[in-house]
Amino acid sequence: MQNPESDKLLQKVIFSPCAAIRKFAAYDHFEVDTRRAARVQISSMANYFGMRFVCMTENNIDASSLTAYTLLRATPCTDILAELGDRAEVPLAHVWELLRRQPHGEKETILINEMLLVDDFCFNTFFVRDKDGDLWAISLEWKAFYEGWNIDALRADDPYPLLAGSRIFSR
């Protein structure tokens, strides 16, 4: 008989409360800026993120508690979404709220890499709907070498697996 625990993809790590937000205009928040004085140090944003998310406005976002999980093995987003069910999607405003708590790569809910290596992988993934209503995996990675967050976007139906050890966020 197979152990049901061995089939699990995700292990709960931490809960993080997020406030209700009346209006969130992404273009007022997400910008590449690595200065120490930046609201959030962002070293790069992938083209897909810029084209599909920075132009968005979200309205009347309910308060929520986000759950962070550790991904136990390399897995495509579709399998992660199946395990999370209706809790998978996160508003972009709450992604920003977590970034604001760690604007310069401080340790908290979002994983950071503490090494100065460019390819030290600590991915944080949020499933977010874009301006057209399509679901994407938004990936955040602190790049200490570049002194900022790298923000990327991958279609949620892309077969490319997310790496084991990544942190996955859901409601």
Q: Can you characterise this structure?
A:
The chain has one domain (9-170). Strands 1-5-11-7-8-9-3 form a seven-stranded mixed β-sheet. A hairpin with a 5-residue loop joins strand 7 and strand 8 (135-143). Mean pLDDT is 90; it is low at 116-120. It contains three helices and eleven strands. With 171 residues, it is mainly β. Helix content is 14%, strand content 36%. The longest helix is centred in the middle third of the chain and has 10 residues, at 92-101. It has helices at 47-52, 77-84, 92-101, and strands at 10-18, 21-25, 42-45, 57-61, 64-71, 75-76, 124-129, 135-143, 148-155, 161-162, 167-170.
Let me know the largest β-sheet. 7 strands, mixed
Computed Rg = 15 Å
Shape: globular
Average pLDDT metric: 90
Question: What are its keywords?
Answer:
171 residues; mainly beta; 7-stranded mixed sheet; 3 helices
